[in-house]
Description:
Shape: elongated
Number of helices: 4
Number of strands: 5
Strand order of the largest sheet: 1-2-3
Distance between the termini: 31 Å
Strand content: 25-35%
Largest sheet: 3 strands, antiparallel
Helix content: 25-40%
Structural class: alpha+beta
Amino acid sequence: MKTHGSAIWSGGIKDGKGAISTRSGALQAYPYGFASRFEGKPGTNPEELIGAAHAGCFTMALSLILGEAGLTAEKMETTAEVTLDKVDDGFAITAVHLILQAKIPGADQAKFEELTGKAKAGCPVSKLLKANITLDATLLP
């Protein structure tokens, strides 16, 4: 399976404006920029989108793992807090803290901890955040 997201940008880093879109149309030319990323202004930012993706991925992975253990969640709610820090050579995502609230009939604390640990380690977004990322870039005329 392959899917995609896209971004456009015009201008400098502080005065520029961008827009992010997804293949599904969930985001269609949704605004982002310096002010929404660093100053709390309206719009989205890459870290927020990574947080949403990570929360969704982790929760789906946990649902799968629960099913394999013969359990079904009545409700799971996950928040992923993404930390962007200034580092020596710029900025870096240094941490993602997953916060889960779940109602899972039949699960005890030990099994819950075991299964949530598996989901945290095994969801594809968790793996991506640990991956070596490569790039093929083409400059068009």
